[in-house]
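Entry:
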Amino acid sequence: MKNVFNSMFVAAIVMTVAGLSSCASTQAGNAGKPVLLVVSFGTSFNESRALTIGAIENAIGAAYPEYEVRRAFTSQIVINVIEERDGEKIDNVTEAFDRLVKDGVKEVVVQSTHLMDGIEYHEMLDAIKPFESKFKSIRYGKPLLSSDRDYDDLIKALVAETAQYSAGDTAIVYMGHGTEAASNQDYAMLAKKLADQGRKNYLIGTVEAEPTLDDVIAQAAALGVKKIVLLPLMIVAGDHANNDMASDEDDSWKSIMQDKGFTVTPILKGLGQYQGVQQIFVRHVSDALAR
């Protein structure tokens, strides 16, 4: 594990530098050039932000060099923490669009990095709506899980990233956030598709909805496994991953699973680090441009 974290730290430095370069070009503006606005929930965990959101932005920028890539977050809490702690200003969606208008941009592609078509995604759309008449075109790239192909591509990415851990005595458990929106069903759908593809040792749970941690523990026990590898089903490895999933607190998923007799290995690697996930978002930009 030491080598894993050392490599993550080095990569974080590289990605942070790239992210700072991107922010500098954003501040300078580029009137007339079309913009790809990548909208994420955000995270105050700097290393994970660079490795995940930064990596997605870089992949999109590499695929569409004729566009200027800009960043916005939907979580004002995260934006405030970063500004107060680090002095770094990240736009919310309204601020990002005010800046686009001021810079004279006429063509925008908005690519969400949200996992699903949930509350945060629709709040983003609502924030953009008042600006629609100010642009020649605004196109929208869909969230991560928006089609059958997306599920299949995500499963390929999950399996590729965890192949070294997958064994007969091990369950691969992905922890999602969960939502009150109808899109929470996407977690169950992902679990079903994994099972249908023979990946019965891949289990999906959520922090705040269903499937629950109890559901996951019951499924792992039914499989007869002794080991659990625990990963976030979230774009970033932020607060939920570090605290609710992997911490030594009594109420973390790791601690509760250990109390149930499992040997648990948490992996703090957000989905945004997966090249397969990055390419899903690149494809969603392509789909948006084709519409």
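The longest helix spans residues 2-28.
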